[in-house]
Amino acid sequence: MGINRHSESTGIAVVTVDYPPVNAIPTDGWFAIADEVREAGRDQKTKVVVLRAENRGFNAGVDIKEIQSKPGHQALIDANHGCFDAFAAVYDCPVPVIAAVQGFCLGGGIGLVGNADVVIASDDATFGLPEVDRGALGAATHLSRLVPQHLMRALFFTASTITAQQLHHHGSVYQVVPRAELDAAALKVAENIAAKDGRVIRAAKRALNGIDTQDVHRSYRYEQGFTFELNLAGVADEIRAKFDDDLAARKSGE
């Protein structure tokens, strides 16, 4: 359980997220993702990184139970710093990052995928930001890299999800494949990139980031400010408590 990294073949580093059962990532996990992606990029032999996950879904966002179990706001601050670090590590990685996404990709998962260079998804994958239903904000910066502006707003305000097939239509998901073929499909694209000259690939990554129209770091940090504001005002605690009550009620009725 946790984050691990291995070399699949020459030039390809694979970072795997494994926090069963749903990959709700604790604070330490976000920092670990950042560390492993950065370490892979520092290795001059690496030409491409594949970010993948075990378990039912790619990512269920932050571990809300961890935040609620600790008094005060430090746990929230730490979680937000961890997310910022992980998202930044993917975006700033000196080589391309391929996200291989299965099942659900929610909350912080959108931050990772939105900052990746290539997205491969299984045919059961769905993407969304349930933040407004949890009394928080964030990662609209990254969702806006996956869908057009007005669709992003509709998805954000309604806390709705969108399918891999829909994202493929918008061009942000490169390929949609059966779940059993997801790893192989991601590695095939990785092998294509790894066959190139690593010096050119690293220069290309810097060039593409340099011409990006959005400063993803500043934009996401701006969003985080409103999350802190909602928590300081007590709004987030109130909404999360209601969410927990509703969840408990649904489980007792099953």
UniProtKB/TrEMBL annotation:
Keywords: Lipid metabolism, Lyase
Family matches, as PANTHER family: (7AS)-7A-METHYL-1,5-DIOXO-2,3,5,6,7,7A-HEXAHYDRO-1H-INDENE-CARBOXYL-COA HYDROLASE, ENOYL-COA HYDRATASE-RELATED
Family note: Belongs to the enoyl-CoA hydratase/isomerase family.
UniProt name for this protein: Enoyl-CoA hydratase family protein
